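Appendix B. Worked example

We walk through a single record from start to finish. Start with the input: the chain for Sigma-70 family RNA polymerase sigma factor, Aeromicrobium ginsengisoli, length 194.
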Amino acid sequence: MDDHQLVERLRGGDEGAFVSLVRQHQPGLLRLAESIVGNRAVAEEVVQDTWLAVCKGADAFEGRSSLKTWIYTILVNRARSTATRERRSEPVDNDAYHGCFDSSGAWATAPVPWSEKVDDEIVARQFAKLVSQVLPDLPDAQQQVLLLRDVEGLPAAEVATLLSISDGNQRVLLHRARCSIRRHLENAMGGEWS
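Next comes the structure step. The output line below is what the pipeline stores for this chain.
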């Protein structure tokens, strides 16, 4: 079912359409909300508030973006408002990325493709566990871009629009997040990436 049909069913009060949306997007919304507000319980409230807004605002959906992007935009706006009330944003430590990029902004050393090193299910599980441990340590903006791009699979342009940042800033944040994760994984796995 496409976005238009799903929205029409929502507008008609179809509970099945709403349940389908929740099942499809709840995990990603919760991950992103928690990365913004920094607290699981508060993130759950933000997600619940987002779903209420989706139900109440289905008539306002104009189809200028995908339904997924519209829902994530609602979440980001609500999570940011909540985060502002809950805490201050932490500054980015640019020194942490020294050596990852050259003066033109490209990788100083090309990353080794991860898929060649993670070919065994046990290693893949350890890898996923290490990534999930590192993710909360990333600055909020990097965490959000990484989640939206690499976990949720949103296109770069939609992520930039959703987070109200430039496309260039989105690319920098994504590279910095990946660089941080790579550095932590290399340390945790003994630097055996070559």
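Two observations about the output. The longest helix spans residues 15-37. The chain has a mean pLDDT of 82.
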